[in-house]
Design brief:
The chain is α/β, with parallel strands linked by helices. It is built from 9 helices and 9 strands. The structure holds pyridoxal-5'-phosphate.
Length: 226
């Protein structure tokens, strides 16, 4: 059994090598450890070796971990965001990956202003069209992005997606490539910068990085067995 630190180092190495293999700089891809299955001790162990970003998908867990861990951690929220949880999430998270409705865009921006916070956020897109998946259907994305482009407290920085479980290489390339194209088209049509593409998990981050991912969200490969 390898240790947590060894697994983190090995995933980081693979993320960086995938970037280089895609002709990109290894520094262009941020590895986000998804700590949702582990307690504060495992997070602290990585923190002590210099890791400063972690991702959580549930508001109560985010709040509990945030309260008990050092202030200089950059928390990412990646789960379904209920409207009555926005104020708490905004108080804790610097980046929100999973904004999935126009009312939520508006609420996030208003509450960010009230709380004097300026989180970066992404719109989640259901590229694969699976009924069970969250995120904007592709056809509804342009209208949402037009609203998001006008937010001034919370900052719209890009798109996020999740690929279907068990998708093969070609399907992954198609889905992640589609998110990148959507981002490129929106940035051009709205005349804004949309630098971030949050895509790729333990099983599919190599394809995501090949297609331009700037943030990969990895849980199992780092934390399984902890
Ligand atoms: C849990 C989770 C991940 C991490 O998935 P792994 O397959 O464990 O790497 C990534 N993104 C989201 C939104 C998640 O909920």
């Amino acid at each position: 059994m390898s240790s947590l630190l060894e697994r983190y180092a090995s995933v980081l190495d693979e993320v960086r090598r995938s970037a280089v293999a895609a002709g990109r700089s290894p520094d262009d891809v941020v590895l986000l450890p998804v700590s949702k299955t582990v307690g504060a001790d495992a997070i602290r162990e990585l923190y002590q070796s210099g890791v400063r970003r972690f991702a959580e998908n549930r508001e109560p867990v985010l709040m509990a971990k945030c309260a008990g861990l050092p202030d200089d951690i950059e928390w990412h929220f990646i789960g379904p965001l209920q409207s009555n949880k926005v104020r708490k999430v905004v108080s804790a998270a610097s980046v929100i990956h999973s904004v999935d409705s126009i009312p939520l865009v508006e609420r996030l921006d208003r509450i960010s202003g009230e709380e004097n916070r300026s989180p970066r956020y992404m719109l989640e897109v259901n590229v694969s069209g699976e009924a069970s998946k969250g995120g904007f259907p592709v056809g509804e994305l342009p209208a949402a992005a037009a609203v998001a482009a006008k937010t001034g407290n919370a900052r719209f920085v890009g798109l996020m997606t999740m690929a279907p479980l068990g998708a093969g290489h070609d399907e992954l390339m198609r889905i992640f490539g589609a998110l990148r194209s959507l981002r490129d088209e929106l940035a051009a049509s709205l005349g804004i910068d949309l630098p971030e593409l949050s895509m790729g998990m333990s099983g599919d981050f190599r394809e995501a990085i090949a297609c331009g991912a700037t943030m990969v969200r990895i849980g199992t490969s780092i934390f399984a067995g902890v």
